[in-house]
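Q: Protein A?
A:
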Amino acid sequence: MAAGDGRFQLEDLPPGPYTLEISHPGFLTAQRSVTIGGAVVGDIGVVTLEPVSVTVFSGFVRMT
């Protein structure tokens, strides 16, 4: 869970490659890969989520 400003920290992970999924309702999910190794801190930087594109159709149905 992220803090109010979106920052988060994961602790006590074994070293190795990880894929993070960042999501929020109404936005497309983003994925970032990071490799954690020993005392090295992994930083994925700023992730900007793209809004879900919605197509709206208008019209009517006529019964014949």
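Q: Protein B?
A:
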Amino acid sequence: MANRCEKLFIITSDDGETIYNGMRLANVGVKKVDEVGVFMLGNGVCFAQAGSEAYDVMGQINGSAAIFSSEGSA
């Protein structure tokens, strides 16, 4: 049996590329059955406006539905 890892990503930037890559990395952890949490802090809470055609932030976040709990926390 593979070892599970617990990971927490804290995103504090409103830069679309940074958020996109952070969420992409979190998604890789989820696919490897790691326990992953994401916390948006500071400017990171503006993630919905940070995307662009090149960096589909919301696409990465929507692909991370397993990360977000039903309590609304990441």
